Amino acid sequence: MFRHVVMFTWIAGTTEEQKTELVTELSKLPGAIPEIRSYEIGADAGINPGNHEFVVVADFDSADDYIAYRDHPVHRDVIERAIRPIMASRAAVQYELQALGER
Amino acid sequence: MFRHVVMFTWIAGTTEEQKTELVTELSKLPGAIPEIRSYEIGADAGINPGNHEFVVVADFDSADDYIAYRDHPVHRDVIERAIRPIMASRAAVQYELQALGER
To answer: What positions does the domain Stress-response A/B barrel occupy (chains A, B) (predicted)?
Structure first.
């Protein structure tokens, strides 16, 4: 399994409506992009200071399938309309899953 | 399920030995900290420029269990010995898991 993890911080003045709209838009991606195996999002719980504000964890069968997602026009459209206007910073890693422990 | 995701970049001059040592040290955590439900690590695959270099995705039953992990002396020891000496930057999010799609 190949995993894509990306985190964001939002610019000052980002509204709750914009954050809700982003969740709505991202929710459409698993239905639109068949390469997605698992798609999980989350807003930071506010436990630790200095955290990023939002995360996406997406799993694919292969790096090629991740690239198909990355470059998919429906995904690019969500980035342009719902992410780029509110993005302050971004941090990402893609990697082959390596589980150290599972209970 | 409550998830902790953290990414790192390493300082210039970080050696392969230091990166291997970090993986070795992190591999001990699921056995040492019973609150860990799932523990996955990965080094960036090098597909996209500007990425972070390493990620940990850890799942817990609750935010309290995450905090037990965060503050566990075995974890703090790994941070001090194997992460802090090579860390350039860090990005983290903790959140309640919200799956949008699963195939």
So the answer is: 2-95
